[in-house]
Amino acid sequence: MLGGLALGFGHFAAASAWWHPAGPWLLGAGLLMVLTGSAAGARGRGPLQLLRGLVALSGISRLFGDVLSYLRLFALGLASASLALTLNQLADQVSQSVPGIGFLLSLVILLLGHGLNLALAVMSGVVHGLRLNFIEFYNWGQTGEGYPFRAFRRTAAETEKEKQTGE
Fold this sequence. Notes:
Layout lengths: L1 H11 L10 H18 L6 H12 L1 H38 L4 H35 L19 H10 L2
Helix pairs in contact: 1-2, 2-3, 4-5
């Protein structure tokens, strides 16, 4: 990710070169670490290890998609801020154009508009954040950890054993 970031910053920089000098090295080192780190955990030798490393490299595109999904949260915040500015301008225009009662109308616009905007911002942030955590980044964790929950209760065998021993 750092190598891609360095390449991207170099591409959009005002410098004459389209890439940052460290970008290709960081990108190559990162890809090599993913390839060798994933291959080291594979069972067996030779082609099986290399195949597992190549499959791990294919997951990099999924990581890029996950990062782009987090940009959706930024877009939601930006849309909420834009809506707030629009509501402020609308209330100001109503207050100036309608003499007398315009102040009350602008107050209603501000209260209802910003209340709705706040509710939508909180709801969308929670919903999209949960979606990202539980759906997209869920597969980046380790699998097979823990044990299934078993409720605390007596089984028939334990009850029979207690009857026989007199406990």
